[in-house]
Amino acid sequence: METNKLEKTERGQIIEHLRAFLEPWVSEIELLDGITEETNLIAELGLDSVGILEVVMEAEKEFDISITNQELDSDTFTRLGNFVSLLQDKIYENN
């Protein structure tokens, strides 16, 4: 299990997991094909507050982490890379 958890800390793998979590919340699925760390989750993908909460909860469950409300601010979702960095930091904290 430890090896699997460490593998998930790779940014590309985190993005792949997030792509799956985002799919139900993005109205135009083809937008997910072009996501990068620069993608704005709200402006470009149209994620709403419910979608954000669901994606955060899925990430917490998948990576066995806990994210506080204080860690979730508007900057977290202006770029996918910001959210990935937060997840990566939380994963490393748990290892």
Keywords for this structure?
95 residues, Non-ribosomal Peptide Synthetase Peptidyl Carrier Protein, Chain A, single chain, 51% helix
General description of the model:
This protein has 95 residues and is mainly alpha-helical. The chain has a single domain, classed as Non-ribosomal Peptide Synthetase Peptidyl Carrier Protein, Chain A (Orthogonal Bundle), CATH 1.10.1200. Helix content is 51%, strand content 0%. The chain contains four helices and no strands. It has helices spanning 2-7, 11-22, 49-63, 80-94. Helix 2 (11-22) packs across helix 3. The protein is globular. The model is unreliable at 1-8 (pLDDT under 50).
In short:
With 95 residues, this protein is an all-alpha fold. It is built from 4 helices and no strands.
Quick one: CATH class?
Mainly Alpha
Structural class by SSE content: mainly alpha
Portion of residues in beta strands equals under 5%
Tally the structural domains.
1
User: Which percent bin holds the helix content?
Assistant: 40-55%
Number of helices: 4
Order of helices and strands: HHHH
> Spans with pLDDT under 50 lasting ≥5 residues?
1-8
What's the CATH architecture name?
Answer: Orthogonal Bundle
Main beta-sheet strand count, sense and barrel state: none
Rg, nearest Å: 13 Å
Give me the count of strands: 0
CATH topology: Non-ribosomal Peptide Synthetase Peptidyl Carrier Protein, Chain A
Topology:
Blueprint (H helix, E strand, L loop, with lengths): L1 H6 L3 H12 L26 H15 L16 H15 L1
Helix pairs in contact: 2-3
